[in-house]
Amino acid sequence: MNVRLVNDLTQDPLLYASFDSSSESLLLDCGYMFGLSLREIQKISSIFVSHTHFDHFMGFDHMLRMRIEQNRDVEIFGPSGFIFQAAGKLSGYSWNLCSDLNLNFIVFEIEPPVIKKTVLKAQEAYKLGEIEILPYDAVLAKKNNFIVKTAIMDHIIPSLAFSIKEIDSLKVDGEALASIGAQPGPWLGELKRDALAGHDLNGEIEFSNGIVFERRKLAELLFYLKRGKKVSYIVDTVFSDDILEKAVELSENSDELYCECAFLAEDADKAASSHHLTASQAAIIAKEANVKKLFPIHLSKRYTGRFRDVFLEAHGVFPHVYLSGKGEFKV
Ligand SMILES: [Zn+2]
Ligand SMILES: [Zn+2]
Fold first, then answer.
1. Which among 281, 291, 289 is positioned nearest to 322, based on CA atoms?
2. Based on the domain organization, do 161 and 200 belong to the same domain?
3. What is the pTM of this model?
4. Ligand with smallest separation from the Cα of 55
5. Cα–ligand 2 centroid distance for 285 (angstroms)
6. Residue 309: is it exposed, middle or buried by C-beta count within 10 angstroms (0-12/13-18/19+)?
7. How far is the CA of 220 from the centre of ligand 1 (A)?
8. Cα(83) to centroid of ligand 1, in Å?
9. In this structure, what CATH number is given to the domain that contains residue 111?
10. CA distances (Å), origin 300, targets 73, 85, 149, 207, 285
11. Tally of domains within the chain
12. Residues contacting residue 166 through CB under 8 Å, at least 6 positions apart
């Protein structure tokens, strides 16, 4: 999984995740997105919106413009009230001359104990129709190569935090394959599928050069496990015992945690009253969750030119702090 923070640290937070093994990409939050190429936007299969404050949802129109002629559905997930707000954005335009459009939005509104689902169809001028009610599940999306989970934070309004876990995969050791003199073929895919599924690897394979191998031995020789990366994203929330517990559970053992550090501790009163995090609170989440790297994001513009102070405050609590795009800060 390749993850890119699209904007600068004080701008709208936007995380773009792509996968080597798939043409699908994911977008976390949907604010200002002119830093994404047309091709990147057209690859997005699912958008996860934390909440609908302007800086997290205003890019929807740009995405719509870039995607409008694509015949490929987009899933969008958001918090309480999201279906009405997504439909509201689309209803702000006239669609009477667009009978050849086929871009549909499958909209999920996360509101425990339920998830509401609807499909906004181009062919129906994006009119709000039937809403399906599903039981709440923290797992929002589960595909062959990734799982996206959510936890609900508190920003006076609900704000969704997300984690993306790339599924572990088996890779073929090319040198080991060459060393046995076997040609890749359907046998390799079958062996990999069985090994991944934990099936018994009974039996043998005879290659065209006459060499016979036990399947179990071949799997040991040829495959190695590539651990899938875990990336978490937490923005716009107050800090409390309850939030800390939920944030830690979601982001536990992440390789990378992208976390709002809107304020410094010197402005903790402002953070508390606007339900935002300070750099040290974000670092407490990173530390408790045992993440590998903390990336502070969504800094208040008041700290432009004071990134080192943000780094030092977070670093005082948790040592593995990285300011995306700003090079290495040293203590
Ligand atoms: Zn907000
Ligand atoms: Zn925000």
1. 291
2. no
3. 0.91
4. 2
5. 18
6. middle
7. 50
8. 18
9. 3.60.15.10
10. 35, 26, 27, 63, 19
11. 3
12. 1, 19, 145, 146, 228, 229, 230
- Quick check: is 326 in a domain? no
Amino acid at 151: A
Q: How far is the CA of 325 from the centre of ligand 1 (A)?
A: 23
Instruction: Output the CA 174–ligand 2 centroid distance in Å.
Output: 46
Q: 218 lies in a domain?
A: yes
Boundary (domain end) residue, out of 167, 186, 207: 167
In this predicted model, what pLDDT tens digit does every residue of 226-253 receive, in sequence order?
Answer: 999 999 999 999 999 999 999 999 999 9
The rounded distance, in Å, linking the Cα atoms of 189 and 169 is 13
Please indicate, yes or no, whether residues 11 and 77 belong to a single structural domain of this protein. yes
Range of 96's domain?
1-167
Q: Which ligand is nearest to the CA of 153?
A: 1
> 73 and 11 share a domain?
yes
Give domain status of residue 327, yes or no: no
**Is residue 140 a part of any domain in this protein?**
yes
**What mean pLDDT, rounded, does the chain reach?**
94
